[in-house]
Specification:
- This protein is globular.
- It has a 12-stranded mixed β-sheet with strand order 4-5-20-27-22-2-25-24-23-26-21-7, with no helix packed on it. Strands 1, 6, 8, 10, 13, 14, 16 and 19 form an 8-stranded antiparallel β-sheet that branches. Strands 3, 28, 30, 32, 33 and 35 form a 6-stranded antiparallel β-sheet that branches.
- The chain has 2 domains: 260 residues, no CATH class; 156 residues.
- It has 442 residues and is mostly beta strands.
- The protein is built from no helices and 35 strands.
């Protein structure tokens, strides 16, 4: 498996962006009343009446500069966990992956059960096959009748018959044990399959499952009923090396009428850092919030949140626009959200200016404007000590990336149902200082 560099652009929906430079964001547990957070449905106890939502699960972002090639007939799989529907079943409408240098070759995606943290058996009706040349970026295939159980772990796998039909990655790390979305698990790879000529070429059981090259992003699109006030439609995390101008990521196409939360961490910033805007391939602009560029710690950590109330449907890339006095490794996390206000959705934020040992708690935001809000927290540990973040209190960890080189970054969330001053809390199981921040949205 060989890596090379390329560049691409993608579009996004409504965005809430948080940029961290050499930092780690985390959310502290407030003492206020909160809604229930269950799977991708946030605040399940706060809504009234079920609605049908379409969500993407699994890694849904890819670095346009990281490519893995030479993987003919070598399947890669990512773990995901299904939500708990308020009623009815979960229906899979599409399976997706990110491709660079498209080639005319057989390729496909399929879903496997989980067997003790590894891919198990092929799920009936959930395998796909295509002999058509895919496009550059996110590609999807529709399965037949594919239904899944709620609150259950599964694996989504991708395979191509071509050594030149390259797959984009979420990081440039060579580690075989870490992947951006810790809740989705390590990528798994097996010995090459003999051939791939149709959907029935997928093995009925995943042979010789072993941890392999991490961060091959595959995702599943599904529909289910929920009564949640807020729903995470899509989320993911990736890294890049940002110069003085832009950093671009491919993402799963956005839907309409949603907000998108993005968090990024920057490492080894020397001097000044400024985030001018976040844009997507649909020309949406996501504005920085809360004077984020002024918060740079003495050990060169920084962070920023940005947001827009509504973003164009069908965006396929996300670009950070800013300036740094020297090169910097960036982690970016995002969460597309249904349920945020159509205007003036950003409410309050808090940026810490010094790192803390573990466990950590951020400062408090100003009192929130309304009772029902969704909170996002970011935390970064920029010491290069590999580790894992854990959410504190009622916070939920939704994304985490340990690049095993410079930093670990995590994205947290929770829904609340009363006004108050909120903070972010959590812990990190390795050495070094942790820098947190959070923002609230109506």
């Amino acid at each position: 498996m060989n890596r090379k560099m390329t560049m691409k652009r993608h579009v996004n929906k409504i965005l809430f962006a948080a940029v961290l430079a050499c930092t780690f964001f985390w959310c502290a547990v407030p003492t206020h009343a909160q809604c229930t957070l269950a799977s991708t449905g946030v605040g399940g106890g706060c809504g009234s009446g079920a609605t049908t939502v379409t969500v993407n699960l699994g890694p849904t972002i890819a670095n346009t500069a990281y490519i893995d090639n030479g993987n003919a007939l070598l399947p890669f799989a990512n773990q995901f966990t299904t939500p708990t529907p308020s009623s009815g079943s979960i229906t899979v409408t599409a399976l997706g992956s990110f491709i660079s240098s498209p080639a005319a070759a057989n390729w496909g995606l399929a879903i496997y059960t989980d067997s003790s943290g590894a891919p198990g058996s092929l799920v009936s009706g959930c395998s796909t096959f295509s002999s058509s040349t895919p496009s550059t970026g996110a590609n999807t295939l529709a399965p037949g009748t594919c239904t899944l159980s709620g609150a259950t772990n599964y694996w989504i796998a991708f395979v191509t018959a071509s050594n030149t039909q390259n797959q984009l990655l979420t990081t440039g790390s060579t580690s075989t044990t870490t992947c951006p979305n810790s809740s989705f698990g390590t990528s798994f790879v097996n010995s090459p399959i003999a051939s791939f000529t149709s959907a029935v070429s997928w093995p009925s059981t995943w042979p010789s499952a072993t941890g392999g090259q991490p961060c091959h992003p595959n995702y599943v699109t599904l529909q289910y009923n929920t009564t949640a006030t807020y729903t995470i439609i899509s989320s993911g995390m990736a890294e890049c090396t940002m110069g003085n101008v832009t950093c671009t990521f491919d993402i799963a196409p956005t839907g309409g009428g949603h907000g998108l939360i993005v968090g990024t961490g920057l490492v080894d910033i020397a001097g000044t850092f400024s985030l001018s805007s976040v844009t997507d391939s649909a020309s949406d602009t996501i504005s920085a919030r809360g004077s984020c560029s002024s918060h740079i710690t003495s050990n060169n950590l920084a962070m920023c949140f940005a947001s827009t109330d509504r973003v164009t449907s069908g965006a396929t890339s996300l670009t950070l626009n800013g300036s740094i006095s020297s090169g910097c490794l960036i982690h970016i996390a995002f969460a597309e959200v249904e349920g945020t206000a159509a205007s003036s959705s950003f409410d309050k934020s808090d940026y810490d200016t010094s790192t803390q040992s573990s466990p950590f708690t951020s400062g408090n935001t100003a009192t929130t404007t309304q009772a029902n809000e969704i909170l996002f927290g970011l935390a970064v540990n920029g010491t290069g000590s590999s580790g894992v973040f854990t959410a504190g209190g009622s916070w939920t960890l939704i994304e985490q990336l340990d690049d095993t080189v410079a930093q670990t970054t995590a994205l947290f969330m929770k829904a609340v149902s009363s006004t108050g001053a909120y903070n972010l809390s959590g812990s990190y199981n390795s050495t070094g200082g942790n820098l947190p921040a959070l923002a609230t949205f109506k």
